[in-house]
Write a structure and sequence with these properties.
Shape: globular
Oligomer: single chain
Number of helices: 9
Strand order of the largest sheet: 11-10-9-12-13-14-18
CATH superfamily of the largest domain: NAD(P)-binding Rossmann-like Domain
CATH topology of the largest domain: Rossmann fold
Order of helices and strands: EEEEEEEEEHEEHEHEHEEHEEHEEHEEHH
CATH class of the largest domain: Alpha Beta
CATH architecture of the largest domain: 3-Layer(aba) Sandwich
Distance between the termini: 55 Å
Helix content: 25-40%
Number of strands: 21
Structural class: alpha/beta
Largest sheet: 7 strands, parallel
Radius of gyration: 22 Å
Length: 411
């Protein structure tokens, strides 16, 4: 297809770029064109990855909170369509989503002492919430959590429905982040199923019984089971290939089941690769970012497994927290959405940026390729942008700088 619009190499990063079709037709799939009678949103990730909502938007106006810029460039896209005119913008306009005010509300967070849980607790305390944090500290650290949080050091696998009901009295919102990770040295298949499936069912059932206003569940990209090359979308068929991914998909199904049985307001965040300061505690998982920054700070060369072409979708932790809060406060519920940037970064590119930050001018060491060789794990963020007005804001360069500064600072 040739259209008057946006050339992938010309647009301002980071992806995704959201555009509005003003007129004409646009090809969503090979052999299929969508006639456009009015302004419509398109999420443009790369030449063959498109997400389209025909006629979704009202006529554009300056009140919408963005400054559009008309681009008239020719791009080749692997889908047939007639010419169309595109209007580019760096973010979706505000869609008038109603928000619940959490100030003074009682919130319960499981996995509160974890990397993301701790960041979420800090944000919620800052927002004036009353917090209870539950964590077994197998890979968590209470120093991540503000002193005003009521701490419950328990394994969720040991809490039955009746006890949850007591704990959830007067709780407005539940964030369920606690989980056994498949890549943790302390985990076993039986522990994973006990925490991620059995204990999760008990918690969600208690939330429904008590009448918690909103339950937010952190699922995972591993629920998809995809290793690329296509960008992962919520409309894709989920076929997890790990026990962890299967358990997360089961958690999503449990929410739906209990909602149908009793009634429950919920949203699910399928998290991609979340990174940032305070990521690692004893027994947890060290990302390639932490491993290679540690090597650089010791004066060693970073290590790249295989070609380094494996591509990941990184989201800075504060942006992830913003997404979770949006899922908790929005009037929109019963949604499963990716928390992703839509922009893949190869390990080779990532390592080069880390070396530049540190001032390391030599080549990285190369190790044997592992199972990630040749994989692409990138999520389509169009649904969360359209439904919850959220986009990843922090560039990979800015996020890496924050991690590097944290790792150099004294404890």
């Amino acid at each position: 297809m040739t259209c008057t619009g946006i050339a992938p190499d010309e647009i301002v990063k980071p992806f995704p770029l959201f555009v509005v079709i003003l007129s004409g037709q646009f090809g969503a799939h090979p052999g299929k064109s969508i006639p456009v009678g009015g302004p419509s949103v398109v999420s443009y990730h790369r030449r063959s990855q498109l997400s389209i909502w025909p006629g979704m938007m009202d006529p554009l106006s300056p009140r919408r909170g963005f400054e559009p810029k008309v681009m008239r460039l020719t791009s080749e896209v692997k889908s047939p369509a007639s010419s169309c005119t595109l209007l580019a913008m760096n973010k979706l306009p505000q869609m008038g989503v109603e928000r619940e005010n959490l100030i003074g509300k009682t919130i319960l967070v499981t996995g509160a002492a974890g990397f993301i849980g701790g960041a979420l607790c800090r944000r919620l305390v800052q927002d004036g919430c009353l917090l209870t944090g539950v964590d077994n500290l197998r890979s968590g650290d209470w120093t991540r959590v503000p002193a005003t949080v009521r701490l419950v050091e328990r394994d969720i696998s040991d809490i039955d429905v009746e006890e949850w009901v007591t704990m959830l009295e007067d709780v407005d919102t539940v964030f369920h982040l606690a989980a056994e990770k498949y890549n943790s040295s302390k985990s076993t298949p039986s522990r994973l199923i006990a925490a991620n499936v059995t204990a999760t069912e008990r918690l969600f059932r208690a939330c429904a019984m008590v009448g918690v206003r909103r339950t937010v569940f952190t699922s995972s990209l591993y629920a998809y089971g995809s290793l690329g090359p296509d960008v992962m979308s919520e409309t894709d068929r989920a076929e997890p290939i790990t026990l962890y991914g299967a358990s997360k998909l089961m958690g999503e199904g449990i929410l739906r089941s209990i909602d149908r049985e009793i009634g429950l307001s919920w949203n699910v965040a399928r998290l991609f690769f979340i990174y940032g300061p305070r990521q690692f505690a004893d027994g947890g998982y060290k990302s390639v970012i932490l491993v290679n920054f540690e090597r650089l700070l010791r004066g060693e060369a970073p290590v790249v497994n295989g070609s380094g072409d494996q591509t990941l979708d990184y989201v800075y932790v504060e942006d992830c927290v913003d997404a979770l809060v949006s899922l908790a406060t929005s009037s929109v519920d019963r949604q499963i959405v990716n928390v992703s940037s839509g922009h893949g970064v190869s390990v080779r590119e990532l390592t080069a940026q880390m070396c530049s930050l540190h001032g390391f001018n030599s080549s990285p060491d190369h190790a044997q390729a592992d199972w990630t060789e040749g994989t692409t794990r990138v999520g389509d963020p169009a649904a969360i942008a359209q439904k919850f007005d959220w986009m990843s804001k922090t560039s990979i360069e800015g996020g890496l700088h924050q991690v590097y500064e944290w790792m150099q600072s004294p404890l």
